[in-house]
Amino acid sequence: MSLTLKKEIQFYPVDGGLFHVYDPGTMRHFKIGQREVQWLNLLNGENDRDDLAQIIPEEHVDAFMMQAERMQLVVSQQKRRRINPLKLKFRLLNPNRMLESIPRFNLVYRKVLNAAFVISLLINIVWLTMHWQLMAGALLSFNLNMGSIIFYVIAILFIGFIHELSHSIVAKSFGIHVPSIGLMLFYLHPAFFADVSGLNLLKSKRQRINILLAGLMSNCIMVTLSIPLYYILFNHSSLLYLIYFMMLNVTIMFVNMVPFVEYDGYYLFLNLVNDPAFKIKSRQSMFNPRRAKSEHLIFGIMSNLFIASLLFSAILMIRRYVLTLTSSNLVDYVTIGLLPIVYLAFMLLQNRRTA
């Protein structure tokens, strides 16, 4: 039997003669030695076991081949990936080379971000507390039309890009490779994503948490930087959009702290409980509650409720826009019918992934 290494597998040298291995197909990361890298490069589809045994010590050949298959690094055992329609990702660029060329900037950015965050957070709490009535009034007066939709899409993509770029820069400052940044449709909501999953190779929990908090920190600082603009634009018609921009940042900060869906808060939670399989156990507990631990069951229930709220909010937003085009009662009937259908489809997807 001959094995073929996937063409897309990427190797990055790190300290101590080790290599960071990244598989873009599964978005999995590994850390292996130089000898194992040389062995993997022998898997060209032509070398069979006997050929490999001439280079790899006999006592290691079988274990090496089994490990390469188990880690899904070879074509022969590559499983067809299931596409989750609720989590669609579209990779746009590989920022790794660019970030590697500016190591000093990455370090300075991380230090400035960490230093400014606490001050920024305090300023925002005080200012938003003093102006909460104005903010609430602006949100209540929000009208859904083509202009506001265009603004929302542009604003959410800009905020999301800065958020994910901050994750990427801080991750790179700790030596983590960031192979991709892209767009994502996450439970029917547009967003950006950055693949910083290599942070799991870091031994320091403090460094991992710093990377995961970087996006939230950038949102907080964007709110602070918007405060002077508030006074400059106080009597200007664009003030309302500035308030929306600020509240979008605040909303993203809160949502990213929720641990029940795969936002930053979820990965922070996993680092705190030190149980990478916590979500899988929670998902399984929903189908066998009697044998489940209470913490897994509670987390599973809350996760499903939060995801349902994301799906329902997207559907209701679409309904609100459609009502600006037509006043037909059919819109409400379709909305009422879609809510349970979407939730049942989500549960079926969960069941398929658990099986």
Describe what is shown at a glance.
This protein is mainly α and 355 residues long.
Characterise this structure.
This protein has helices at 34-40, 49-53, 58-70, 96-100, 103-130, 132-140, 146-173, 205-232, 239-256, 264-273, 278-285, 294-325, 330-354; strands at residues 10-13, 18-23, 28-33, 87-93, 181-186, 189-194. With 355 residues, it is mainly alpha-helical. A 3-stranded antiparallel sheet has the order 1-2-3. Strands 4-5-6 form a 3-stranded antiparallel sheet. Helix 8 runs antiparallel to helix 9, helix 8 (205-232) runs antiparallel to helix 10 (264-273) and helix 11 packs across helix 12 (294-325).
List the helices and strands and how they pair.
Layout: E1 10-13, E2 18-23, E3 28-33, H1 34-40, H2 49-53, H3 58-70, E4 87-93, H4 96-100, H5 103-130, H6 132-140, H7 146-173, E5 181-186, E6 189-194, H8 205-232, H9 239-256, H10 264-273, H11 278-285, H12 294-325, H13 330-354
Antiparallel strand pairs: 1-2, 2-3, 4-5, 5-6
Helix pairs in contact: 5-7, 5-8, 7-8, 7-9, 8-9, 8-10, 11-12, 12-13
